[in-house]
Amino acid sequence: MSLSRGGSLVILTGAGISAESGLRTFRAADGLWENHRVQDVATPEAFHRNPALVYRFYNERRRSLATVQPNAAHEALARLERAWPGELLLVTQNVDDLHDRAGSQNLLHMHGELLKARCLACRAVVAWPGDLDADDHCPACRRGRLRPHIVWFGEMPLEMERIYQALDRCALFAAIGTSGHVYPAAGFVEAAAPGARTVELNLEPSLVADAFQEQRVGKATELVPAFVA
Ligand code: BJW
């Protein structure tokens, strides 16, 4: 068994956990969309400059989400949560809903959710209403325009207080399928409680691999079920 029973766990996931479901990661060599770098479409500046392009990008990603399924790694984490006798917080940087569909409950989407939109006027977060475009208005206040409920660069990630509180008292912090390029998530390993066990599970060592006590290198669908067994 890779985990000793009990205690508080914080598990961080990134795009690598959904790769084997068929969703592209961000920093892979093919991380392009209509010849735009993904990083160039997913920014507040891009939305300001060309909202139609940004809506199209997210409408397309939302549609492709409907064609994929949770994989063995998502399922293993949901199983772990059901069986775990202590506290378990799953923090995902992913905007897909594969952890939700696998059955994880104590789950925070720190970079937002692809299936939700947010009103620029009243800030209500609503279900994404079909194919969104620049003429759509908020169903709650009926006046504001809607934007994707996504945390873009330079914006504050969600639920930070809850995440840091959980890190502060955790007995184990594990990061799965994330490259360590993007902060604050890449710094969570440094915020884990003194004495916490820290483990990285990834296809290759991340940029912050040296900050972890342990490394498991390989595919999420193989590493994660073995780790939680
Ligand atoms: C597998 C696998 C398999 C593949 N099995 N593994 C200078 C220094 C430090 C920080 C900054 C700086 N300048 C600016 C900043 C801050 C900035 C930042 O970090 N920039 C860096 C680029 C330097 N961060 C922000 O702006 C954030 N906000 C912020 O800092 O607010 C201030 C604040 C913070 C804290 C407290 C108070 C205030 C916001 C970041 C928002 C990130 N948004 C995105 C886009 C979402 C939109 C969308 O989806 O459309 O989120 S960027 C993108 O990267 C996405 C991801 O969630 C995020 C992380 O990517 P991830 O998940 O790691 O994916 P990849 O592709 O990078 O890696 C995949 C990994 O999986 C790889 O390692 C593969 O090997 C592996 N893998 N197959 C296992 N089968």
Automatic annotation (TrEMBL):
EC number: 2.3.1.286
Entry annotation: catalytic residues: 111
Source organism, top-level taxon: Bacteria
Residues annotated as binding NAD(+): 14-33, 93-96, 177-179, 202-204, 220
Gene3D superfamilies from the UniProt entry: SIR2/SIRT2 'Small Domain (3.30.1600.10), TPP-binding domain (3.40.50.1220)
InterPro entries: DHS-like_NAD/FAD-binding_dom (IPR029035), NAD-dep_sirtuin_deacylases (IPR050134), Sirtuin (IPR003000), Sirtuin_cat_small_dom_sf (IPR026591), Sirtuin_class_III (IPR027546), Ssirtuin_cat_dom (IPR026590)
PROSITE patterns linked: SIRTUIN
Residues annotated as domain Deacetylase sirtuin-type: 1-229
Coarse class of the protein's main subcellular location: cytoplasm
Enzyme class (EC, first level): transferase
Binding site for substrate: 58, 61
Binding site for Zn(2+): 119, 122, 138, 141
Keyword terms: Cytoplasm, Metal-binding, NAD, Transferase, Zinc
Entry comment, domain topic: 2 residues (Tyr-58 and Arg-61) present in a large hydrophobic pocket are probably involved in substrate specificity. They are important for desuccinylation activity, but dispensable for deacetylation activity.
Name of the protein in its database record: NAD-dependent protein deacylase
Gene behind the chain: cobB
